[in-house]
């Protein structure tokens, strides 16, 4: 038995998906996006960073953040999202801590700012925590008189 009507022709081409890049929307037919300069990129990052920091600081989100981070901390000794803990001064003894992927002083792998560095027993300032993929590194420790900081 044959169908009574022919199926419609498919028109879901990938070219249609990317046609917007070849129009005069950006100024030329070649998809020139030079109007998006470095300052614009920094503005996007700064606004995104501020929004995510606000979300992390909201205490209503702390339970969700803990659920997201706990498996990462157990495996790698560092969360997925969140800022570093300036009070942490231990060793990374997590399952994969030996890989050297960071510790709780660092911001989360995906997002977070590193914590401020501490001071060692000789009064020398220690390095601040590393940032996540989106974030800022922590400032180094100030040190004390006679120490390096």
TrEMBL record:
It comes from the Bacteria. This is Uncharacterized protein.
């Amino acid at each position: 038995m044959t169908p009574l009507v022919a199926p419609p022709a498919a028109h879901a081409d990938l070219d249609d998906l990317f046609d917007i890049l070849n129009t005069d929307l950006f100024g030329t037919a070649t998809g020139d996006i030079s109007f998006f300069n470095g300052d614009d990129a920094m503005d996007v990052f700064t606004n995104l960073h501020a929004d995510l920091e606000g979300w992390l600081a909201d205490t209503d989100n702390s339970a969700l953040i803990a659920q997201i981070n706990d498996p990462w901390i157990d495996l790698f000794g560092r969360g997925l999202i969140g800022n570093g803990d300036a009070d942490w001064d231990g060793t990374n003894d997590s399952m994969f801590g030996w890989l050297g992927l960071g510790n709780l002083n660092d911001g989360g792998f995906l997002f977070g700012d590193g914590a401020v560095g501490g001071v060692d027993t000789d009064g020398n300032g220690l390095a601040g925590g590393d940032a996540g993929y989106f974030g800022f590194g922590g400032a180094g420790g100030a040190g004390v008189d006679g120490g390096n900081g």
